[in-house]
Amino acid sequence: MKVVISPDSFKGSVTSLEAAIAIEKGIKQALPNADTVLIPLADGGEGTMDSLIAATNGRKVKTSVRDPLGNSIEVEYGWLGDKKTCVIEMASSSGICLIPQEKLDPMKATSFGMGELIKKALDEGCRNFILALGGSSTNDGGIGMLQALGMKIMNNNGEPIGFGGKGLCDVSSINTSNLDPRIKDSRFLIASDVQNPVIGDYGATRVFGPQKGATPEMVEVLEKCMVKWTNLIEKQTGIRLHDTPGTGAAGGIGGAFLAFFPVEIKRGIDIVIEYSGFKQALINTDIVITGEGQIDFQTASGKTPMGVAQVAWEQEIPTFVLTGSIGEGIDILYQYGIQCVHSIVDGPMTLNEAMERASELLTQRAEQMMRTYITKKSDIKIIKQYN
After folding, report:
1. DSSP string across 15-31
2. Could you tell me the CA-to-CA distances from 297 to 38, 210, 324, 347 in Å, in that order?
3. How do the domains of the chain map onto residue ranges?
4. Which of 305, 302, 291, 303 is nearest to 366 (CA)?
5. CA–CA separation, 58 vs 55, rounded Å?
6. Cβ atoms within 10 Å of 387's Cβ, excluding its own
7. Residue 187: phi, psi to the nearest 5?
8. How far apart are CA 82 and CA 147, in angstroms?
9. What is the pLDDT averaged over residues 96-104?
10. Maximum separation of any 2 CA atoms in the chain, in Å
11. How far apart are the first and last CA of the chain?
């Protein structure tokens, strides 16, 4: 029996590779001779760079940029195995994971470090980019990123604006003449599963702002500033971002890329699957096992388990999902090739305990799931004798 194991990371607990290894261990305990293929995946958030580098035998480069609050931080970006393509995760320089919960503040958080990373890769000769936008802490419409790459964004006094949402609120004019000229000769592939527009009830600020520390009052202020920013972009470029799907990604940086860069936007999981060799690995495969920390109705929007199941279902291969937590609305997932969803939590325990024991729990549940599958697959009839 051939089993392809392709989980995402269980955030704060195990990486996608660690999860895959733990699942494989459980499968082997149930079926020692199983042919297992491990292809750890990601969907455009944290772990995307590692997945693509591992799949292509690439390498990482260390450098220093500004973090979301403007402090110097050491980060990494990747060169894929083709030695032509760079992959940059926004979370590494501008991620919500870089700020303590009590200090989250989209009025201050900047995307400047993301722009610095792009510039450093351009300096090293890269002209082909994959940009993973998941996990950002920002709501600045991408102004920080644009400033880092040379764009002049001024306030009413003709002075450069500051960082974060506060700077966004001060925008009065933009001058693109100094934007790094190498950008127009490059290709940018945006990895994002966000379809939200940049403004409105389903826009960047109202949907994601509260997760980044925005109070209700702050949300209203930032929404007005984002409208002002998108109006200015339309006036300057003729490009209307307001209700365009995907422009709300990473606090509106998706819109900035669409307006000023030669870009293509794809679901993050589709990009990772394309580079990972996942489709080729499905040849002669019996089942696929995937998973991530939580499964709910949002999984259908393009998270790793959904992307995996859709590709496997095209070849009529069933997909089984392992997860730490099962939320609302998972019924929709069964329409796309997912056969069943199993929680790895085997009894009452705290979240911290579940996260600490994730590898152990993944192994246990994978073994039990595989034993059940083998029994049904073999159509074994178990007859219980009663005295």
Report:
1. -HHHHHHHHHHHHHHH-
2. 26, 20, 15, 24
3. 2-39+277-378, 48-268
4. 291
5. 8
6. 2
7. -120, 130
8. 30
9. 92
10. 92
11. 38
- Burial annotation 162-178 (CB, 10 A radius, 16+ → b, else e): bbbbbbbbbbeebeeee
Query: Which tokens sit at 151?
Result: 């764009």
Nearest of 274, 276, 278 to residue 58 by alpha carbon:
276
Q: Which residue has the tokens 């579940």?
A: 354
Structure confidence at residue 387 as a pLDDT band (50, 70, 90): very low
For 329, list phi and psi in degrees, rounded to 5: 80, 25
Q: What are phi and psi of 170, to 5 degrees?
A: -95, 0
Pick from 267, 374, 261, 306: which is nearest to 6 by CA? 306
Its pTM stands at: 0.86
> Which helix or strand (DSSP H or E) is residue 189 part of?
strand 187-191
Q: Which amino acid is at 247?
A: T
> C-alpha angle 326/330/331, rounded to 5°?
145
**b/e per residue 264-303 (b: at least 16 CB within 10 A):** ebbbbbbbbbebbebeebbeebebbbbbbbebbeebbebb
CATH superfamily, region 48-268: Glycerate kinase, domain 2 (3.90.1510.10)
Q: What angle do CA 125, 67, 42 make, to 5 degrees?
A: 70
Which one of 3.40.50.10350, 3.40.50.2300, 3.40.50.620, 3.30.365.10 gives the CATH number of domain 2-39+277-378?
Answer: 3.40.50.10350
Side chain identity, residue 112: F
Other CB atoms within a 10 A radius of the CB of residue 159 amount to: 10
pLDDT in tens, 141-181: 999 999 999 999 999 999 999 999 999 999 999 999 999 99
What's the CA gap between 228 and 240, in Å, rounded?
Answer: 12
CATH topology identical between 2-39+277-378 and 48-268 = no
Q: Look-up: residue for tokens 């520390």?
A: 213
Kind and range of the H or E run holding 368: helix 358-378
